[in-house]
Amino acid sequence: MKLRRRWPVFASMVATVLALFAAAYALTQASYLPTPAFLMKRPAPTPTPADTRDARWRQAIEYLGSQLPYLHVNPYFKISEATFQQSVTQLAAKVPDLNDEQIIVEMLRIVASLGDGHTKAFPDAKPVSLPNLPLKIVWLDDGLVVTAASPEYAQAVGARIVEVGDRAVLQVCDAVTPLIAADNEVQLLNNTPTYLAMPAILYGLGLIPQRDYVTLGFEAQDGSRFRLVLRPVSDYSEPFIWIYEKAGVQRPLCEEDRQAFYWYRYLPVPNTIYVQYNVCAEEKGKPFRAFVDEVFSLIDHNQVARLVLDVRYNGGGNEGVLAPLIKEIKARPALDAPGKLFVIIGRGTFSSALQNAITLRRETKAILVGEPTGGKPNHYGEVRHFRLPNVGLLVQYSTRYWHNYPKGDPLTLEPDISAAVTMNDLLAGRDPALEAALRP
């Protein structure tokens, strides 16, 4: 009798638990909602630091080898478990023979070996903070170009890097590539300059004989060659000299405010609103909903004929932040029409920004302009982080798979209109992607 009385209560409890898990699973499948925290795995407690340098490094390496595959949603989709664990074991054994920079380099190599562009280690995040050269470097079809530098290295601005130490720059890039977590060649192209600008990484790879400076060989615009000895800095507050200033041209609109999460400009000719969306997040003191209301109030009152959304520099965040803007676009048939809506994409378009670009291509009449994306349409993402014990190296890992193209697996999202940037474009202050979007 007692069992019969309790059965409805027990059944109700089971139903409630199942409903909670069903709801949680539904959240993980929704495009704009993160996986619930209680479904996430958590890193193990870090061990008490060992007494010796070598033992502390081994603790960090072993923690990486155990926690990264445990926390990642599917760690061995490209590399076998045996290969991964062998690399961890071999590095731990070699610790006495390696300096700190060499160990960090090998850790980067181990993390990158998973083949997931969202799963990576950050050698420039505190407390590790390997210092960078005070340069802005980008790969163009013309080569590896310095687009900005601190005043003491102004001579390098607008020049191509052709040598690192006594090695050809392409040889150095080949050595750096295995340290970079990437989903495609575009992402590698976009991230290689970051590692080339860290002398400690080059030193750890055995490419230069010291970690505190590096000698770079340059080719100027007139074809002449010169060399500079450059020293890295941890923090640099002095304004850089940009290629536009050196060339005496106006900075293109897309470069006016890369630090803001989002901003817009009304272009009376040709009656266009340009919106640059740089981070998929709410900017403090500037709610995105209010920003969208302001933009579309201007569109409606001025009968704006064209909208250009620029996400070429957006590395991601929360996909759902852009939802109000997409909704307002779809509510205006005159704007959501062929030739009226353009989205600029590029090698920096990644993660949630890539998701937004895919949504706009599928759900609106948007025309994509620019370069192929650094993000891969089908990809692992929704990242979390942990730090390695003793060294504090920050490691990011994926907790979810985004299957945007069930019937294919393209390496990038390709633009409908290609518009790559050349050295001549930079020297003239031109933006080929925006020009293409504004073309009648």
- Major sheet summary line: 6 strands, mixed
CATH topology name of the domain at 252-376 and 411-438, in short, is 2-enoyl-CoA Hydratase, Chain A, domain 1
CATH evolutionary superfamily of the domain at 252-376 and 411-438:
2-enoyl-CoA Hydratase, Chain A, domain 1
Query: What is the highest CATH level, the class of the domain at 252-376 and 411-438?
Result: Alpha Beta
Helix content estimate: 25-40%
- What global shape is seen? globular
**Widest sheet: strand ordering:** 9-10-11-12-13-16
N-to-C series of helices and strands: HHHHEEEEEHHHEEEHEEHEHEHEEEEHH
Radius of gyration: 25 Å
The count of β-strands is 16
Alpha-carbon distance between the termini? 82 Å
Mean pLDDT: 92
Total of DSSP H or I helical runs spanning 4+ residues? 13
Structural class: alpha/beta
